[in-house]
Amino acid sequence: MSYKLLKQSGISHINVLLVGEVGAGKSSFFNTVNSVFRGYVTSLANAGSLGRSVTTQYREYKVRAGDDGEKIIKFRFCDTRGLEAEGGLAISDVEKILEGRVRDQTELTGEIVPNKEGFRSHPTLENQTHFLAILVGADTLSLMPETLRDKIRKIRELAIQRSISSLVLMTKSDKVCPHTEKDTSKVFHSPEIRDKVLEIGSIFGMPPMNIHPVRNYFSEVEVELPMDILVLTAVRQILRGAHDFLQDMLDRERAEDKALREKMRNRKLNMKPSLANRRSSSYSEGSGTESSEEKPRGPPPPPPSARQTSSKRIGSVSFAYKGEDGFCVEEGEQVKEKKADVNGWTKVKRIVNGESGYVPTSHIKFK
Predict the structure, then answer these.
(1) Which of 56, 62, 100, 275 is the most buried (most CB within 10 A)?
(2) How many CB atoms lie within 10 A of CB 4?
(3) How many domains does the chain have?
(4) Is the overall model pTM greater than 0.70, yes or no?
(5) Is 273 within the bounds of a domain?
(6) What CATH number does residue 151 fall under?
(7) pLDDT band for position 300 (50/70/90)?
(8) Beta-sheet pairing, 345-350 with 334-342
(9) Is 62 inside any structural domain?
(10) Could you tell me the residue range of the domain that residue 356 belongs to?
(11) What is residue 99's predicted lDDT score, i.e. its pLDDT?
(12) Distance between CA 220 and CA 223 in Å, rounded?
């Protein structure tokens, strides 16, 4: 992951959302990743099995490196309550987490709704999910109810709708292969592991290259290189997917900016002959009355207070606006200035959903 890309995107961390059935090993996976970077086995996140989800809060865990843990790696894992066939974490709550509407340490025992403690009304890209990791236990896959499988499929669809990439972490790989249990390095030579990977791919419609067998630290008291390699291979793919998500987002923003600039330039060019025609026909011949020809509409004039600035100001929308490109803002909502006023137009970013576009400068009141 390029730190330059993080800076260009205006965020400090990559957010990786972990979802999976109860007991799949979401919290244990974070502990394992953290152990690899710390150099010893850690157990920061609560892990285990009580016949129900041990995790009851939405948590954002930072990965730290070294014995002192002072160096924070630029990605964090977002742990959630386990999925269940009936009950458990609701799909609607997962959607809110993907959008960044849930704050760290929010209780997930009830539905997440506006005005509830922990609900974030105006999430930014910093709060949103950048990659989805689905955890599936290799030893319980065949026992997973169809209703639970359908939940996971729907969550993946929500991610796809937001252009968020995903992969499956197949945990407890050692439980389905005795050779892997004795020697983790044999995982990619195991027919049993291969069959489970293909089975997961068939169930959730994912290619084998997006299904990674891993083994979490459970009974070990010291880190082991073969287990670390498996985990780091999966983490590398996760970060590559998050990198692609951010790069695609920046590319789309640049394409939108280019299209809007071309549209504004064409509008100016078309406006000049229209103004000349309007002046020549503003009065009907010999009647002295104004022509019914509709006046061409050009870009609004910049307000007296408009000025070039390098700061990114927060403003409030005075008048609702919807452009020809589909970008719209609602009266009263908060926006962030991305590019200062140019010829009566300002590029802003909607705080509510992160979308960017141009609006008339006179429609925005900046603080």
Answers:
(1) 100
(2) 8
(3) 2
(4) yes
(5) no
(6) 3.40.50.300
(7) low
(8) antiparallel
(9) yes
(10) 301-367
(11) 95
(12) 7
